[in-house]
Task: structure prediction
Amino acid sequence: MRIPPSVIAAPLYGIVKLFYATLRFSDEGRDRIEALAADRRPMVFALWHDELFPLAHVRGNIDITALVSQSRDGEILARFLEMTGAQTARGSSSRGGVKALLKVSRAMRTRGGSCAITVDGPRGPRHKVKEGAIFMAAKAGAHVVPMRVFMPRGYRFASWDRFQVPYPFSRVHTIFDEPYLLPDEELDNAFLARQSALLEERLNTITFTG
Result:
């Protein structure tokens, strides 16, 4: 008998909340996104799937909707994120993706909120940007915010993305790169491919040496 996601999410939230309390968080570039959030400017936060774990803390007080896959694991994650105060939308590159992207884009444009998307999820290839973040940002007129979450001491799972979880009492450092607007060009396949490649390049150039 499989345990329902609703039963798993509640104790998971309690455990993770206690775990977060042991971590030492630091940010770089948060002033850039706080200023845009204060002006109700929509943003698309683009991050790698393996750096997702600390996202609930990284969000802070910013109105962010997380795009979560429609899988069973996605259901658990969605319920967990909703317990932290985040909003979620269900969809991925493989199931319900375009519908979810359009729904979130419309909401961002009307209320000025933001969205977080793992640009290589939900199944990879690892660290290869798919087109969803660019499509969403173009539709919403949103700033793209490349971001990385560095966990110098942690455990990597033997999954497709080598998912990371920091060790208790270790450091977690988030870098928000310079937000940018997409050029005003036709939203066709060539545009999506070109801008996805540029986003991938920007993510790969973000480094942390601390």
